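S.,

Sequence below, as promised.
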Amino acid sequence: MSELLYLLDLEGTTGIYTKSLHVNDTIQLRAGFKELVEEYNRGEKRIAITTRAPRYFVDVILENLCDRGIDLDCKVYTGEDLEFASYKLGSYKDYSKVYSDHDVDNPCKDVVVLGDFIRFDRAHDFSASEYRGFDFSKDASVFGKNHALNDHPFSEDFSETPVYAVLPQLWTTYRNSKRFSLNMGFVMDVLEGIYSDGDSDFGNGFKRFDGEGLVEAVESDALAKNALGIDFSQRYLVFKGEDSDWECLEEMMDG
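The prediction came back faster than expected:
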C-alpha cells in the first residue's frame, strides 16, 4: 500500500449529495470515485474524508452510499472534528488531528489535499472549456478570491503545507444536458506517479513535475496575502486533463 495519505473534501469533490443546503436528496458520484473507495477497502490506498459539513449531514450520506453498495469506512472528519482558524475571508482547516490519527510526521512528504475549484467570480458559473483554458499560473490570485477554494490547509505555526490538488467542482459543467467532470482515476494516477517520482516524497515529486498542459503546477501566496497579510506560499496542482478524461457523473439509484 502506498504511504501517501489523500485527504478528500466531500461535496463537490467526490460527488453531489444534495440539491439544497444540507438536505440529502441525490447522489451523483465523480467518475472513478467508487473505484477509489474499492481500492481503499482492499488496502491499496490511504484516504480520509475532511469536510466542513455537519456530522448529521455526513452520516446520512454515508448511510445512503452504503444502501447503494458503497462502503466508505475510512475515517471521516466533519466540521465538528476539524480545527478551524478564522481570517478576514472566512476560515481554514487545520489538519493536526488528522495527521495525528494517521501517524503523519511530515505532511509535505506524505499528504495530498484534494478539493474542488468552485468559481472564478460570483457573476457566473464556469464551463469545462473556461476551466481548462484558464492560465492559473498567470493569475493565481483566483485561488484567494470569492471563496474559490474552501480547503486551504494552514497550520498554527504556518509551516510548509501539503500540496493542494485542485479538481473542477461538479455542479456546473454539462455535456448533452448531463453533468460531467474530470475522472478521479486520472487524478489518482497522476498523484501516485508524482509520489513515486519523488522517491516516496510528494514534495520532491512536485518540484520535478511537468504536467505537460494536463496538470498545472502552481505556487502562490495569494490566499495568505489576501486573508492574512503575510507572505506564505502554497503549492497547487490544477487538474485539467484532456477531453477524454472528463466523464459524466455516475447517478446512484436506490439499492
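The CA atoms of residues 215 and 239 lie 5 Å apart.

Coffee later?
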